[in-house]
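Open question from group meeting: does this chain pack into something compact, or does most of it stay loose? Before anyone orders reagents, we agreed to write out a predicted structure and look at it together. Recording both the input and the output here so the notebook holds the full record.
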Amino acid sequence: RKRQRAVAVVPPPMKSRKKARQVTSRFHRVQEQLHAAEAALSAAKDAGQATGDTEDKLRRLRAELQQLGGREAYQQASRLQLQFCDSGRYVFQQLTSRGFRPSRREKRRPRVLEIGAVTRTLLRCPWLDVLAIDLKAQEQDIREVDFFQLEVDSERPFDAVVCAMVLNCVPTAAGRGQMLLKIREHLAIEGLLFVMLPKRCLSRSPHLTQPEFLALCEAMGYALLHQKASPKILYFVFSLRERVPLPDIAEQRRNPRRKKSTTRKGADVCNFDVRLSDPALDDEQARQG
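Structure tokens returned:
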């Protein structure tokens, strides 16, 4: 009698970079669709409309997410990608070149907030005081907390905030805008913000270009200090010059023709966008005005 092979409880370790990119892209797409379906379901219930089709869609999306391996598979893929992204080395180099690395006589270590931490690279650095957080921590030293719920310590702001391959994980454009705004509350004036993004977020999006993204960051009070690009990743370093009040931040008008031209190019379209408000509400207000 043949022995049955044991069924793996957790997905096997991911080794292929191509597979990792596929998993992260699919995870983001499904999460985006889930968020939209949940919002549609809530709106339908409030309006007293039928919800059967939307509930079926939610079940299909949740099953697809489970088949993918859920957040655990996504974190494995993210960990593999970050190994090649080498964000830690970039952070160390920029902090050192900009005078943040303390001398041997200095006792105070720069305080760093790492959002969406999946490795202990920054935590292992002896000259940094790091608070690493993630929604579902996989390492003992990483604190499991939602960044949007993280309490602000105005007396001890961070000298640097690291947001490596995280902004693109937020499911909505308005949520990404809120993350960039909230980071300012945790970051000291003249402190550094590190942002790493998949290159396709700003090269294959029908909504947002790289110059538009940088202009929006500048309007919020971030000054670009350095940028570089690898074949797959964009790296940015900003300095927080001021916390511009939200009513005073002017969002640039987007080119409506670009959306049509980009979506015709095929399947490699990325829906990445950053908004400081809900564009649907803006359109509704514009129609009423």
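Observations to bring back to the group:
Residues 6-10, 260-267, 279-289 have pLDDT under 50 and may be disordered.
The radius of gyration is 21 Å.
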